């Protein structure tokens, strides 16, 4: 089967890894795309910093495209970004939604208007199975943000593993975190050239999320 030139949406966390992992099996991924959301005070939400996202892209050996946007301007800037890819002969993209129909519908609508194919390899996948695939394939992710309504700050800095997933079950939250219960950073993956060595920093409460500041010590 002929490979297509595609992009993949990338958060830097566990939620985007399996989509990219699937996409690379039979496609040429030309770039990964990450939106960075700005608040009305000019500060980022709990998205990863551009510095860390670029380090991950270097480990993937895939170009990274970042677009900054406010929530109000998100759809417009999202579409402008995807439209800009056509001049690079990119045919479509991979997205990481599992059950969020609103985000899936938005991506489909934009791709349809821009005549780009769209692929959702995780759509309606059992979340228990998705996390099992994640762990069994050798991905490692650290928890760097938690919604204060769902989880306590004690979860910050811990790896997403079977023990933590069981704790999520006990608390009856979405174990995949698709509704913003928690956010992770990937620091080890089968498609990374090396491991990302991280240093934990300060813990803060921002916009309803306990967040862990992190920095890169080195790559090994």
Notes on the structure:
- Helix 2 links the parallel strand 2 (28-38) and strand 3 (64-70).
- Helix content is 29%, strand content 30%.
- By secondary structure, it is of the alpha/beta class.
- The chain has helices at 14-23, 50-60, 74-83, 101-113, 127-136, 162-170, and strands at 5-9, 28-38, 64-70, 92-94, 117-119, 140-147, 182-188, 196-206, 209-219.
- The chain starts with a strand and ends with a strand.
- GO terms for molecular function: diphthine-ammonia ligase activity.
- Its EC number is 6.3.1.14.
- Keywords: Ligase.
- This is Diphthine--ammonia ligase.
Summed up:
It comes from Fluviispira multicolorata. The chain is of the alpha/beta class.
List the helices and strands and how they pair.
Layout: E1 5-9, H1 14-23, E2 28-38, H2 50-60, E3 64-70, H3 74-83, E4 92-94, H4 101-113, E5 117-119, H5 127-136, E6 140-147, H6 162-170, E7 182-188, E8 196-206, E9 209-219
Parallel strand pairs: 1-2, 1-4, 2-3, 4-5
Antiparallel strand pairs: 6-7, 6-9, 8-9
If you average the pLDDT, what whole number results?
Answer: 92
Q: What low-confidence regions span 5 or more consecutive residues with pLDDT below 50?
A: 41-45
How many beta-strand segments? 9
Q: Assess the beta-strand content as a share of residues.
A: 25-35%
* Lateral arrangement of strands in the main beta sheet: 3-2-1-4-5
Number of domains: 2
What share of the residues lie within helices? 25-40%
**Principal-axis shape:** globular
Instruction: Tell me the number of helical segments per DSSP (H or I, 4 or more residues long).
Output: 6
Q: Superfamily at the CATH H level of the largest domain? A: HUPs
Radius of gyration, whole Å: 17 Å
What are the secondary-structure elements, in order, as H or E?
Answer: EHEHEHEHEHEHEEE
Q: State the end-to-end CA separation.
A: 35 Å
CATH class of the largest domain: Alpha Beta
Which structural class matches the secondary elements?
alpha/beta
Domain Diphthamide synthase: 8-215
Keywords: Ligase
GO molecular function: diphthine-ammonia ligase activity
Protein name: Diphthine--ammonia ligase
């Amino acid at each position: 089967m002929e490979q297509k030139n595609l992009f993949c949406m990338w958060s830097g966390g566990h939620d985007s890894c399996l989509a990219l992992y699937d996409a690379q099996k039979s496609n040429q991924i030309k770039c990964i795309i990450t939106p960075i959301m700005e608040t009305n005070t000019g500060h980022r939400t709990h998205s990863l910093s551009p510095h860390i996202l670029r380090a991950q892209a270097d480990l993937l050996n895939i170009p990274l495209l970042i677009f900054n946007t406010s929530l109000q301007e998100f759809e417009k800037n999202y579409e402008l970004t995807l439209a800009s890819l056509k001049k690079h002969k990119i045919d479509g993209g991979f997205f990481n939604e599992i059950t969020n129909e609103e985000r899936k519908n938005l991506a489909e609508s934009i791709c349809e208007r821009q005549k780009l194919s769209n692929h959702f390899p995780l759509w309606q996948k059992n979340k228990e199975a998705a996390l099992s695939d994640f762990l069994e394939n050798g991905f490692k992710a650290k928890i760097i943000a938690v919604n204060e309504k769902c989880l306590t700050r004690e979860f910050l800095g811990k790896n997403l593993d079977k023990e933590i997933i069981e704790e999520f079950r006990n608390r009856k939250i979405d174990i995949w975190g698709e509704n913003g219960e928690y956010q992770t950073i990937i620091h080890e993956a089968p498609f990374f050239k090396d491991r990302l060595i991280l240093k934990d920093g300060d813990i803060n409460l921002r916009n309803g999320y306990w967040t862990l500041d992190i920095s890169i010590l080195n790559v090994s």
